[in-house]
Amino acid sequence: MKDIFNKRQRFSIRKFSVGVASVLIGIALFIPSQGVLASTENSLPSVEKREEVQPIPGNQNNTSSELDTRDVPIGSTRTTEPVTSGDKENNSLTTRASVAGEDRSSTPAVRTASNPSEVKKYELTDEYAKQIKAGVIGSEGNKLDSLLLNGPQLSPEAYTDNDYLKDKEELYIYEKDGKKYVGYNSHPMLEDTDGDGIIDSDEKSDEKLKWNVSERDMIMFMELSYRDDNYIDRVLNHKKPLTESELYKKNGDSKPRYEYMMMNKELGPYWERKKSYHTSSGLDAVLYETKSDFSYLPNGTAQVLAFRGTSDVKDIKADITLGTGRNPQQGIDAENIMRELAKDKSITNLYLTGHSLGGYLVQRAMVEAYELAYSDSRVMSPKEQLAYRNFYNNVLKKGTTFNAPKVVTSLVSGREFWQKGLDSKKIAKSGKMTHYIVDNDSTIRKGVSNDSDVVINVGRTSGGHSSRSYFEADMINRRSEFISGKRISLDGTGYQDKKITTVKSVEKVGETAVYSKRGDDIIKSTTVSMKNPDTGQITKNTLEEVFKKDGAKSTVVVTPIQPSIRYEKDTTRAKDESKITEAGTPGTRTVT
Fold first, then answer.
1. In sequence order, what are the residues at sequence separation of 6 or more whose Cβ sits closer than 8 angstroms to the Cβ of residue 322?
2. Where is this chain compositionally biased, Polar residues type (predicted)?
3. What is the pLDDT of residues 85-119, one digit of tens each?
4. Fewer Cβ close by (within 10 Å): the C or N end of the chain?
């Protein structure tokens, strides 16, 4: 199991002053005593010269404009994606030609939400609740929710999951193409449907099925990005709980790192590694995305791009470069990744996070998105710039850094690079980027860290500069934003609703209906056949309901028969005298 661990050691960046002597001292400080070096790729191609940035005020959006896809590529970049259905590792960086910042909700990558809008809807009733419990009514695609099948029968006025929402407020029935299905506003058996820790009644109506990304999540993804792709995939595999023997443990650690067990519980059921970036400059980043096996949750509602901090010699080279106020290639790579994501339709709500060098790269990526949106010096069409502006304002949500250096500039920095430092602070002051620091960071000292008016100081920690400072026991008492509802502790094994481990999407494989007479009523018996996804075993549920009340009751129908008229011959009647009639006796006809 040790092979799956990423054995890279993190190294810190130092403050440097301009000058050859300082650089030499810096090299001596940064040489690692041990560590695994990243494989060397082909050298990066030259990058186009950029003009000075002059931000434009305003907040203009244009979702119909298009971007020119002829942007600067990320040179010598290896991207990896989780292997599924026999697919091999993807070693090319592909960019989808699309509009930056357009409405991404209709893209194929985002599973249809559980709340259809253009269908006929019905409120939950006791009769519908019985049909849901039996599996007669389920989700589209012949999918049944195991919690609804195996849990208590719902009742419209009941609060089954104790989230202060009635069952009829959480569940409804909708009709499509003549067939009825279950629709979810939230899950009536789960008080926190989307798993972000916040109970359903505390979330807005459009948030109950979508993960609310918090600073707590930024801490976890920041730390998880330090591990290799295989271990990340293992941590996010919720179907197999992470055991203590699998927990990452670095040489010198007194105990395993339980934060990975916490990630397995809290993130695993709802997130996956979508893609990883490994460039020849040494940049490593992981793109995470919401994805679950639960049919009631839409996929692709949020993404987190986490940049890894210093972990090998190439990262140290970047540290030295940025420490002397110059432009490291990893910063350029981060900018190009942002340009790629701006054109990717599957990116719907993007967050950035990183520690140390990773936090620096977060700033470079955020600045690139800002300058693409608001620089009047970038060479692009007005439509392209409006599209980038829409991406920055509506799709790119926030960046969060931990113990990161600022975008340092020096006398040897170009005019364009000076502007990046200014724009980074401008973004932070606007609230779109948050910088956390500790009091006792001996690596990122005053003058190298971001200015005091744009940082949040969490105080002294045992770990100092280490990313693990943010997993210390009292951290949640210092910063309430590190708590997300029921997800509280950062130094334990995490929170998870016990019901989550039993949730399955059961396949309906058959349904038959038989009608019979019971007393005076017609009874409909519906038998549903279901296949267990784990064992393949077929089980059956039968629901009996009155199809027609008194539909089989014996009925006597009496129909009156009108009397006939008979004419009698009368030889004594004079000519032209009125005829004499004699009426018959009225009668009835009885039918049972």
1. 13, 328, 331, 357, 360, 405, 407, 408
2. 57-66, 106-117
3. 444 333 333 333 344 444 444 444 444 445 666 68
4. C
CA distances from 497 to 103, 114, 348 (A): 33, 21, 27
| pTM (predicted TM-score) | 0.77
What are the pLDDT digits (tens) for 253-279? 888 999 999 999 999 999 999 999 999
d(CA 491, CA 475): 9
38, two tokens? 């990243």
Residue 206 scores a pLDDT above 60: yes
pLDDT over 70 at 27, yes or no: no
Question: Percent of the chain beyond pLDDT 70?
Answer: 73
- Residue 324: per-residue pLDDT: 53
Average pLDDT of span 45-53: 34
The answer to whether residues 328 and 281 touch, using CB atoms and an 8 Å cutoff, is yes
At 366, is the secondary structure helix, strand, or coil?
Answer: helix
CA 215 centroid distance within chain: 15
Average pLDDT over residues 499-519: 93
Cα separation, 121 vs 312, whole angstroms:
57
- Which residue in the block uniquely carries the two structure tokens 């077929």? 538
Q: Which residue has the tokens 């092979």?
A: 3
Q: Strand 565-567 and strand 557-561: pairing?
A: unpaired
Q: Which residues contact 384 (CB under 8 A, 6 or more apart)?
A: 65, 66, 67, 68, 100
CA–CA dist 251, 9 (Å, integer): 10
Distance CA 414, CA 232 (A): 38
Contact 7, 36 (CB under 8 A): yes
CB atoms within 10 A of CB 491: 14
- Domains of the chain (ranges; CATH) run 2-109+209-501 (no CATH), 120-202 (no CATH), 502-548 (2.20.130), 557-591 (no CATH)
Give the residue from 307, 228, 308, 231 showing the smallest Cα distance to 268: 231
